[in-house]
Amino acid sequence: MSTSQIKPHGGELINRVLDPVERDNVLKTIPGMTTIRISLDRAKEIENIASGLFSPLEGFMGQEDYLSVLQSMRLANGLPWTIPIVLDISKEDADKISAGDDVVLDHDGLPVAVLHVQEIYGFDKEIHSQKVFDTNDAAHPGVALTNDMNEQLLGGTIDLLNEIETPYSGYALKPEETRALFREKGWHTVAGFQTRNVPHLGHEYVQKSALTITDGLFINPVIGRKKSGDFRDDVILDSYAALLDNYYPHDRAAMSIFQTEMRYAGPREAIFHAIVRKNFGCTHFIVGRDHAGVGDYYHPFAAHEIFDEFDDLDIEPIFFRSFFYCKKCASIASDKTCPHSDDDIINFSGTKMRELLQSGQVPPPDLMREEVAQAILKYENPFVE
User: CA nearest 253: which of 267, 268, 262, 243?
Assistant: First the structure.
């Protein structure tokens, strides 16, 4: 399947952005509406819904879709979907509104969207966490966020009024724009790469391996809330810019951001990430070891195995089990290409590289490109606190 053939998830790229005349008319009615305060994370989800990145969603999930996603990893109409996209509100706010109302979703005094209320419903946080994260352990960052949610969920379609400014606007392409970019470059097949880390040589090996079977590579870092110890957004972007500028053909690779929070939901999040890249226009999606995992909550290849349950995703996963530097091969290799023993193998230890970077040292050239390391070392503290 080529980029000209791959359809958005559900068949249509959703657009919930009001045209200027409609927007002006809605803004005049805002003083009479109930206002709900929302976080930056929810504001970015609204932008993703409005631009079609979360197609086919047109708003925050109602109860039928929500429960279906929890139980079957599909929307109520049967379409694959694995992560609930919901808006939690306080009981105080819930008491102010009813189904059929229009409410303003406001972030720091900026009216982000109007939500057309369809229903207000409660949910069980323990069941939510067990289904989405496969655990109720409060040490899991996704469970911790769930435990902090309000008790009520608000379902309904949205209309975008204003986007939140981002310091990375040059990388913030919408699905319509990425699809146009792929056509302009003549890419019939595109491999999407999800990341929340800076690149080491193992990542480069995976990306270039995928590029050998596709026309283009789409680097798509997650920009948004992450757990303590993860790399900062600006560091990720600068390090990838250094890699792309120095080691990739400029007509074969592109980078744009995915503005969302990491959920650390392992296999479920891998499917969600694939759907989002499908909406961006990718035909293939790279899935590595422990994709979207955290700690030891998921089997290292659980994110590979879950794709067996979704033969109707219409995006082709490219699986990588392991990769390392082999001293005897004198190159990056994988368990499929290298026959040598553990004594010859240097694994890509994220912990080791972090320790070197924290101490101001450049990791050895068999682990990380010097240009990438220097881009990281420009920052006094490259990690989320």
Answer: 243
- Rounded-to-integer distance, Cα 385 and Cα 381, Å: 9
Residues tagged active-site: 196-197
Do the beta carbons of residue 225 and residue 263 sit within 8 Å?
Answer: no
Map residue 354 onto helix, strand or coil.
helix
Q: Where are the beta strands (DSSP E) in the chain?
A: 34-37, 59-60, 88-89, 102-107, 110-122, 152-160, 190-195, 216-223, 253-255, 258-259, 284-287, 316-319, 324-326, 331-333, 345-347
Domains of the chain from N-terminus onward: 20-160 (3.10.400.10), 169-377 (3.40.50.620)
Cis status of the peptide bond prior to 8, with omega within 30 of 0: no
CA distance 106 to 35: 7
State the pTM of this model.
0.95
- Are 195 and 372 a contacting pair, CB within 8 Å? no
CB 88 within 8 A of CB 153: yes
pLDDT of 369 strictly over 60: yes
Cα torsion 158, 161, 164, 166: sign: positive
Measured torsion, CA atoms of residues 145, 150, 151, 154, in degrees rounded to the nearest 10: -110
In degrees rounded to 5, what are phi and psi of residue 147?
Answer: -65, -25
Q: Where are the alpha helices (DSSP H) in 186-319?
A: 201-211, 233-247, 267-280, 302-305
- As to burial, measured by CB atoms within 10 angstroms (0-12 exposed, 13-18 middle, 19+ buried), residue 48 is buried
How would you label 162-187 residue by residue, b for 16+ Cβ within 10 Å and e otherwise? Answer: bbeebeeeebbbbbeebbebbeebeb
Q: Are 201 and 369 in contact (CB under 8 A)?
A: yes
Question: Tokens 């349950």 — which residue?
Answer: 309
The pLDDT tens digits for 290-325 are 999 999 999 999 999 999 999 999 999 999 988 888
Write phi, then psi, for 307 (nearest 5 degrees): -65, -20
Residue identified by tokens 């190159």 is 331
The tokens 């948004």 sit on which residue? Answer: 224
